[in-house]
Amino acid sequence: xxxxxxxxxxxxxxxxxxxxxxxxxxxxxxxxxxxxxxxxxxxxxxxxxxxxxxxxxxxxxxxxxxxxxxxxxxxxxxxxxxxxxxxxxxxxxxxxxxxxxxxxxxxxxxxxxxxxxxxxxxxxxxxxxxxx
Length: 132
Prior knowledge:
About 30% of the residues lie in helices and about 25% in strands. The chain has helices at about 1-20, 95-100, 100-105, 120-125; strands at about 25-30, 40-45, 60, 65-70, 85-95, 115, 130. Residues about 1-20 have low confidence and may be disordered.
């Protein structure tokens, strides 16, 4: 019985870890090393460096947590554009996103940080974006 339980657990573990690989999802990790929840918005925006007027899809990352930016979320499933183009990553305070309207955030440019990175920049950063 114990061997069966171990076998089933192993199969479930392997199946869940291979799921994203099997779907060929590519991602960039964002590590929140700060003491507050953050919300990120990511897109290929250059030469413009402003937040969009219409509220985009946002992703929240908890304190000391890691979030993923998936290629399909930014219209680049295999992150092919990332090889040559800069990706803009906005870091916002989740409290700000919850308190202000999107229009107020855009007009006041209420961001904590903005990264403009390409593939080589990400390599130089150690493989992930870290917000402190």
